Amino acid sequence: MTDEANISEHTELQDEDKEMYEHFHFLVDPGQEPLRIDKFLQYKIANATRTRIQHALVEGNILINGKPRKTNYKVKPGDEISIVFAYPKREIELIPENIPLNIVYEDEDIIIINKKAGMVVHPGVGNFTGTLMNAALYHYKSLPQKKSNGNDPFSEMRPGLVHRLDKNTSGLIVVTKNEKSINSLANAFFERKVDRRYIALVWGDFVENAITIDAHIGRDLRDRKKMAAFPKGEHGRNAVTHIKVLERFKYVTLVECKLETGRTHQIRVHLQHIGHPVFNDEVYGGDKILRGQINAKYRQFVENCFVIMPRQALHALTLGFIHPTTGKPIHFESDIPEDMKAVIAKWRGRNNK
User: Which residues are catalytic?
Assistant: First the structure.
């Protein structure tokens, strides 16, 4: 792997390993006097504005004794408070950049983007510009801007992320436009109410047509630039991926991956963990010839595939969730990109000979 690729992957780990959501849990002290919940949490949470807290209350992201409450609720001794915020930190200032985006859908609350492979989602070390968020901010600046007012303090546009895709993974990603949508979707992702399906070409053939991978994911103990899978309870965080076989090509298999959780590099790590790394995944071992008889003709065939698709064969195919404003389910599906289509076609043709 090149130094540039190392930096890029490390940047993704640095960015994505931070929780996409902030989780807080408080037990109100016995001596606490009655105090409005928004004021109480302002004292408790550094850098949390009252507006942000109020909107999280409205969206049900703040629970008191397991139930959502109104903004005028007054805390009392013994109250148990739990909070899910969309991750707000921005260590690098976003600069609008005129970069083309493949926008699948857009309304006043969200934008669904079909991200191309090679595009980093958010600026970080080694990738300060040219990211999807730089492009999204430029797009936002070109739209008619709503002004905040006393009746609607959450209407002003600002791009927000509630999930991410790796640099060399293509496919669907949602970018939020305002406080309402970022809070609503942050909660949906945290509560696992989002339907995300990926398609991947992986090394090897599967014994079964469908399996579930349930293994914790955390930083690799020997290489901090990578993630690794661990037995439950030993290290990392819980992660579950459901795998379904779509098509078999003897030495590689086309599979659908449904995410139940959203850990860093989850699909790539889980598939490596069970001995089926994603085809041409240079970080997790898929860029080697792992199946088949190694002869000159076969080696040339695989290397040609690597040239056609110089990245991991992983694409975010579908995305579905409840719309933050309408409350109705929405669903999006994207085409498999041309580089991945071409490689699948080559394996299909070889398999049919």
Answer: 166
